């Protein structure tokens, strides 16, 4: 992952690696980003 260029963001290297987290939970991570108009049901789906 690219490190941020902003002075407002600070990168932190955690103690748990991605592979360790995958092994612990049994799956890879993912992000689902819901976008849409207000009151269109985003929170209901989430």
Would you identify the regions where 5 or more consecutive residues have pLDDT less than 50?
A: none
Give the helices and strands as they follow along the chain.
HH
Helix content: 25-40%
**Structural class of the helix and strand makeup?**
mainly alpha
Oligomer category: single chain
Binned strand content: under 5%
Radius of gyration: 16 Å
Q: Count the helices. How many?
A: 2
Give the integer mean of the pLDDT values. 85
Annotate the secondary structure layout.
Blueprint: H1 18-25, H2 42-45
Structure, described:
There is one protein chain. With 46 residues, the protein is mainly alpha-helical. The protein has helices at 18-25, 42-45.
Compact overview of the structure:
The protein is built from 2 helices and no strands. The protein has 46 residues and is mainly alpha-helical. The mean pLDDT is 85.
List the defining traits of the structure above:
flat, mainly alpha, 46 residues
């Amino acid at each position: 992952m690219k490190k941020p260029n902003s002075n407002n963001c600070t990168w932190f290297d955690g103690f748990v690696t991605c592979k360790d987290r995958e092994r612990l939970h049994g799956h890879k991570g993912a992000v689902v980003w819901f976008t849409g108009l207000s009151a269109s049901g985003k929170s209901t789906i989430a």
